[in-house]
């Protein structure tokens, strides 16, 4: 039996892809959510969104366990132009469209905010490469997303703890009992 997919990281990534697609950026529908995608010159402008890394492990609450996670999301934007100025202008516009779309949803969409506790733009990287008669410009928006995960109902350990016969005794009121701690 396959467990329902309720991974928060996947949900966040999918929401970000849909946010950018709905914003009708220069990349149009050429937006993917995987690191391995190779954007060829005829597919530009293009956007790749992928989780870069995640720090997890801090237990925020116990019983049931709630874990705080910090996800690094990279949004790579790739454009081309006949010269560096044209490519730089297109890259700046595309990156601004994406940044504004994310910030708008964080500000005004309660459902979007509910799946993430905090979102910060951590940095921007830019790179330019000449390829024959065109210039390829690439930019990367690096976001930090803090969110929480809870133990999901229905997940059980594969062990016999449910069947263990565990009992305990607190003692009785007999007068022959000796206090070990006096």
- DSSP strand content: 35-45%
- Count of DSSP E strands? 5
| Shape category | elongated
Rg, please?
26 Å
Give the neighbour order of strands across the main sheet: 1-2-3-5-4
Largest sheet: 5 strands, mixed
Number of helices: 3
Distance N terminus to C terminus?
57 Å
pLDDT < 50 stretches: 1-6
Order of helices and strands: HEEEHHEE
Q: Give the class from helix and strand content and strand pairing.
A: alpha+beta
What is the helix content?
10-25%
- Give the rounded overall mean pLDDT: 80
Question: Briefly, what is this?
Answer:
By secondary structure, the protein is of the alpha+beta class. It has 3 helices and 5 strands.
Describe the structure.
The structure is a single chain. This protein has 182 residues and is an alpha+beta fold. Helices cover 25% and strands 36% of the residues. The chain has a five-stranded mixed sheet with strand order 1-2-3-5-4.
List the helices and strands and how they pair.
Layout: H1 8-22, E1 31-32, E2 46-61, E3 66-81, H2 84-108, H3 110-114, E4 118-131, E5 134-150
Parallel strand pairs: 1-2
Antiparallel strand pairs: 2-3, 3-5, 4-5
